[in-house]
């Protein structure tokens, strides 16, 4: 299997890099929204959470990383169904700002994933990681075999050069 990366690096007004990856789905926006916000749907491709989102935070466990994956604290900055989920995840190693924006037109839903202020040193591994998870989401949405998606074979280190070049590109 040959996987082509589609992620890019954009710079904000202060020159800080933002990872941007898009995926298109032939599905209603509400269905894709459910796949990124409902624990049972999320578990098919990435993980699950516990707690009450209305409280502004939940505990997220990345079950795709194995049964022993530690829970992460997730602060919900914005949740505007079915269009925007904006969160900060916190682990002992630091925090990540993650945003999922959805739009729908003509029966197709476009998911735009962003990670603002990505560490340029980490971009070459974080970019392939999110490509991997978003492809798992696409497989889960279409009834594909999520387990057949292989990070080490198709994403990392295969996509490292793409993300290095994206950082060096104009605007990247």
Search tags:
172 residues; alpha+beta; 8-stranded antiparallel beta sheet; 8 strands; 27% helix; 34% strand
Helix content: 25-40%
Arithmetic mean of pLDDT: 94
Stretches where pLDDT falls below 50 for ≥5 residues? none
Beta strands, count = 8
Number of helices: 5
Number of separate domains: 1
Largest sheet properties: 8 strands, antiparallel
- Identify the overall geometry: globular
Beta-strand percentage range:
25-35%
N-to-C series of helices and strands:
EEHHEEEEEEHHH
Strand order in space, largest sheet: 1-2-8-7-6-5-4-3
CATH architecture: 2-Layer Sandwich
What are the SSEs and their pairings?
Blueprint: E1 8-11, E2 17-25, H1 29-37, H2 39-42, E3 48-50, E4 57-61, E5 71-80, E6 84-91, E7 94-105, E8 108-115, H3 123-142, H4 151-154, H5 160-168
Antiparallel strand pairs: 1-2, 2-8, 3-4, 4-5, 5-6, 6-7, 7-8
Kindly describe this structure.
With 172 residues, the protein is an alpha+beta fold. It has a single domain (8-168), classed as 2-Layer Sandwich (Alpha-D-Glucose-1,6-Bisphosphate, Chain A, domain 4). Helices cover 27% and strands 34% of the residues. The protein has an 8-stranded antiparallel beta sheet. Strand 6 and strand 7 form a beta hairpin. Helix 3 crosses helix 5. The chain is globular and about 40 Å long. The mean pLDDT is 94.
Would you summarize the structure shown here?
By secondary structure, the chain is of the alpha+beta class.
């Amino acid at each position: 299997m040959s996987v082509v990366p589609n992620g890019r690096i954009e710079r904000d007004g202060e020159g800080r890099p933002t990872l941007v990856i898009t995926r298109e789905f032939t599905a209603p926006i509400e269905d894709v929204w459910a796949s990124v916000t409902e624990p049972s749907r999320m578990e098919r491709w990435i993980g699950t959470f516990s707690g009450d989102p209305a409280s502004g935070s939940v505990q997220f466990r990345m079950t795709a990383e194995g049964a022993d994956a530690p829970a992460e604290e997730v602060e919900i900055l914005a949740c505007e169904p079915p269009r925007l989920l904006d969160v900060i995840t916190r682990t002992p190693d630091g925090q990540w700002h993650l945003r999922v924006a959805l739009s729908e037109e003509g029966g197709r839903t476009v998911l735009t994933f962003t990670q603002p202020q990505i560490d340029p040193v980490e971009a070459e591994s974080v970019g392939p990681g999110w490509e991997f998870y978003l492809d798992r989401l696409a497989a889960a949405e279409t009834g594909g075999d999520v387990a057949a998606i292989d990070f080490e074979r198709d994403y990392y280190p295969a996509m490292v050069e793409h993300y290095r070049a994206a950082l060096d590109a104009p605007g990247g």
